[in-house]
Each structure stands twice: as C-alpha cells, then as structure tokens.
Predict the structure.
Amino acid sequence: MKIYEVVVNKRDYMDLLFLADEQEDMIDKYLDKGTMYVLDDDGVKGECVVTDEGNGVLEIKNIAVVPESHGKGYGRLLIKFISEKYAGKYMTLQVGTGDSPLTIPFYEKCGFRKHHKIKNFFLDNYDHPIIEEGVQLVDMVYLRKEI
C-alpha cells in the first residue's frame, strides 16, 4: 500500500471526488488550490484533498473511498497520513460535512469534535437536494482535531 501526492491530472480522479462531493462546480472551488493524495493498495482505493485555510488550519475538502472498499480502514488511514504529514506545520485539521449518520460518527471515531455549523450551506450552494443515508443535508457541520 502507498499514499502519494497527485500534482497533475487531478481530474483523472473525478469519479472518486464525486463520491464525496457530487457537484462539479463545488469541486472546482478547491481542486486546483488543494493538495491531493491518493491511496493505492493493488489499485486506487481512496483520495483526499486538503487546503490551507490560514491561521494554522488545514481543511479536508474531499475524502472518499471506493464503495467496495468501505469499512476496510482506508479512510482512517488517509486521515492518519494527513495528520502525521502536517503535524508541526498546522495546529488544527478540520473537515466540513453534512449532518449525516454516516459521516459524523466516522469523523468522531477519527478524533474530530464538532466545532461549528454553517446554516443552510447545502441549500444555498448546491443546485439539487443532497441526500445521504436517506437524510437531506441542510447545514454544513465543521469538525476539528488538533494535530
């Protein structure tokens, strides 16, 4: 298994990016300025894009694992990799996600704690309802952990 940075042709991974963010113009807002990492374990299993948000905050903008590899620890490995790689360079790792029974518990198990919300984020920024695990996402929930 290896995790490597993707510097060019990030759009080659759009199928993976769409798993975590299903609207292309929203991906466009962070893809070029972000740093992308891909996890390969006998084939690409996941990806993560992070951005510098200033004031010592690194944000996970997109993290996704191919559906057939869910539950195998790849998402957790990507977060561990990011946390270790950027420790000492950033104080805080944050992630924004919908208030979903799928994602919030995952991030909490990875050491994140709820920090703040942006009301109506998904209603105001997406051109269609975003449904996850049968729940329409409305507010963006930010979680943080110190690194």
Summary: The CA atoms of residues 53 and 59 lie 7 Å apart. Helices lie at 14-20, 24-31, 74-86, 103-109, 121-125. The mean pLDDT is 96. The longest helix spans residues 74-86.
